Amino acid sequence: MKTSNVYIAFLAVVLLFTSSVRGEVVIDGFLQGLYGGRVDKANPTIGEQTASESRLQMRFQHWGDNGNFFGRLDFVYDGVTDTYDWEVREAFFRFGIGSSLDFKVGRQILTWGTGDLVFINDVFAKAYQSFFIGRDDQYLKAPQNALRGAWYNPLGELSVVWSPRFEGNRLPEGTRLSYYNPLQDAIVGDKNSEYMAPVKPEAHFKNSELAARWQHRVSSFATAVYFYRGFYKNPNGFDMELGAPIYPRLHIYGASTRGPIGGGILWIEGGYYDSRDDQDGDLPMIPNSSLSTLIGFERQIVQNLTFNLQWQADVMIDYDIYQQQVSEQGGYVRDEVRHLLTTRWTKLLNSELVTLSAFVFYSPTDEDVYAKLSAEYKYTDQITLAAGANLFEGNHIQTDFGQFQRNDNVWAKMTYGFF
Fold first, then answer.
1. Residue 9 forms part of a structural domain
2. Counting Cβ atoms within 10 Å, is residue 9 exposed (0-12), middle (13-18) or buried (19+)?
3. What is the tally of structural domains in the chain?
4. What pTM was estimated for this model as a whole?
5. Which of 87, 237, 262, 346 is deepest in the core (most CB within 10 A)?
6. Who's near 201: CB < 8 A, 6+ residues apart?
7. Does residue 3 fall inside a structural domain?
8. Is 5 a domain residue?
9. At 96, is the secondary structure helix, strand, or coil?
């Protein structure tokens, strides 16, 4: 169906539904223009724009006696690719059974864990390309179809999420942003490489995703344990027979706690990544199991100035086997313990109408850095103006942020919200 027809159909359904259940429906949304360009002229991508889009988002909420419905629909004209697109970001029905059971069914945005933009037990799909070009933070999370159930009891809360079809992370593909291609051992874009699409797990029941979280408050700290059965969210495996990247099988066992201390908020999180397709660590095309830990702290230093610090350590299991295999192939060898430091600084000015933000990721072991800078001005209750930059640097093109070192970009955005 053409985008225009979908748009008309959606509006017709909304108007019809609103007229029949007046007083129980809320419709709002925003119009937005986002424009961005690359700074590095040597980037192997076609054109200089990272973003040139006009976006309409409509949100639809309905409360009823038996539950409530929430929908979020985006319509976009993309000037970079000269295409129209639309996406149902959320469309779910939520209802309860008794006072202890709660269910959410449909397309939804899922999140849990304690980290600030550092994810260990949050195994739900992310859209990193959106994050790197200046789109709103809400677009970091990719939607997925799922059934979520929660059971509230005196011992805590048990949440279970089942997704019938695996949803991987959305990564740069060379059109807007260049990336590292291990087959060419180079940073590539659409000028010098054809994107090799990863092979998703087949749509079988055994390949569905299952995530569970049990949480309980211990004193003033919210404490949780996690389990996940599914696949790595990035295609960091390779199948020689298929000749394509794949998503290897993965189990995660984790825990976290978060609460007030020292005039601020402290969080600690950890997870064991059990690589089910390479439990002995001897398959060079499949990632080894690993153990990841995170500790963070946030507080307000002075009025309207807040900062946080995070430290993550990722320990590779069976590192000696990995090191020998990669060294023999002459490839880049990562450290056994990969460290990542992050900090976020947020300053409010002009009666909190202006927000200045800086978020910096730095890995002393990978020797790379990513800085996300932004300034936002609430011009009126409906109109918000924003501008920012995404800056990358690294000594190795194989690392998480080093591979994006040619993607430095600046962006500007205007949003008009209607209520």
1. no
2. exposed
3. 1
4. 0.92
5. 237
6. 166, 207, 231, 247
7. no
8. no
9. strand
Residue 360: domain span: 23-418
Question: Stretch 80-92: mean pLDDT, rounded?
Answer: 95
Q: What distance in Å separates the CA atoms of residue 253 and residue 275, rounded to the nearest whole number?
A: 12
Residue 11 located in a structural domain = no
Consecutive H or E run containing 5? helix 3-20
Lowest model confidence (mean pLDDT) among 47-56, 184-193, 402-411: 184-193
Kindly tell me if the per-residue pLDDT of 359 is higher than 90: yes
The CATH number linked to 236 is 2.40.160.10
Tens digit of pLDDT for each residue in 134-177?
A: 999 999 999 999 999 999 999 999 999 999 999 999 999 999 99
How many other CB atoms are there within 10 angstroms of residue 153's CB atom? 10
Say if residue 151 is exposed, middle or buried (CB neighbours under 10 Å; 0-12, 13-18, 19+): middle
Range 36-41, long-range pairs (CB < 8 A, 24+ positions): 36/133, 36/134, 36/409, 36/410, 36/411, 36/412, 37/409, 37/410, 37/411, 38/406, 38/407, 38/408, 38/409, 39/408, 39/409, 39/410, 40/405, 40/406, 40/407, 40/408
Tell me the CA distances in angstroms from 149 to 94, 102, 152, one per residue in order: 10, 6, 10
